[in-house]
TrEMBL record:
Binds 2 magnesium ions per tetramer. Mg(2+) binds at residue 249. This is Phenylalanine--tRNA ligase alpha subunit. One of its GO terms (molecular function) is phenylalanine-tRNA ligase activity. Its main location: cytoplasm. Tetramer of two alpha and two beta subunits. It comes from Paradesertivirga mongoliensis. CDD domains: PheRS_alpha_core. It is found in: Cytoplasm. Residues 103-333 form the Aminoacyl-transfer RNA synthetases class-II family profile domain. Its cofactor is Mg(2+). Pfam families: Phe_tRNA-synt_N (PF02912), tRNA-synt_2d (PF01409).
Amino acid sequence: NLYTAEIKSFSPTNADELETFRIKFLGSKGIIKDIFDEFKSVSPEEKRTLGKVLNEFKVLAEQTYQSFKESLESQASGAETQIDATLPGEGIEIGSRHPLSLVRKEIVEIFKKLGFSVAEGPEIEDDWHNFSALNFPPEHPARDMQDTFFIKKDAENGDIALRTHTSSVQVRMMENGKPPFRALMPGRVYRNEAISARAHCFFHQVEGLYVDENVSFADLKQTLFYFVQELFGEGTKVRFRPSYFPFTEPSAEMDISCSICKGSGCQMCKQSGWVEILGCGMVDPNVLENCGIDGTKFTGFAFGMGIERITNLKYQIRDLRLFSENDVRFLKQFQSEL
Ligand code: PHE
């Protein structure tokens, strides 16, 4: 009874007092242990009444200990989370735009001045929009498993794949509208290549399309010439080399004078003074017809470039993998650019 009163009035102010309480009553040499040892030697009749009283006493001691333990603990953690409003605040880190977004924006801004709008389309494409409408013969090597990530092989209705270029958006645009068309198609594209400093299984493109009456190769050259002066600076030289794409005829690849060494020879241009930046050509009349456009009345040009390549040149980045690794030490370097 004396102990019961002591337990009931117990009110620790710190963990040490509580621990003293635990050792005194609940410890291996504590009061409760002693009482239960004595209890073994009482007569069976006494055991019945005394047992109940002792048990209640033991439960009271345990509950008292447990509830003070919990309240002391919650007090302690509460103190830690309490905010001292007088302390100076923590600075919030400012993010930065991804270099590929910066360059895409810059490309789009330049072409906007020439009246180009922006069009988008799905990254999962069917065979028609990615290949067939673009005049790819069925046996064309670009359809090979090596380049294309197929999602579904379907001989009857056409395969489903991740788009390998954003030319598919050009097809969708021409199918769904009437000329003139003047638009850019930026977006992510996929090719089944081993990942290295120079290749990745996905990258970003900006393609462009201009279809109207009397669009000529001269328009193509002047448009791209203007673009390069704006992006890489006045005086950048261009040259066109004949090339082949199934969807353009004639086709060309465009080189610019190396923006890094200014033509004197460096690693980027492999000492040649020139770097290739895009593919282009006059839209093949077959493609226009496939998209429901009169190929005898309308002509057009198209071009396509990899944003990674342009970004590499602009910022002298030598490893493509940096673009997708999200290393803040790399990304932070573009903080000052808007
Ligand atoms: N679609 C081509 C590619 O992905 C680029 C291109 C577009 C070439 C338009 C010519 C005309 O490589």
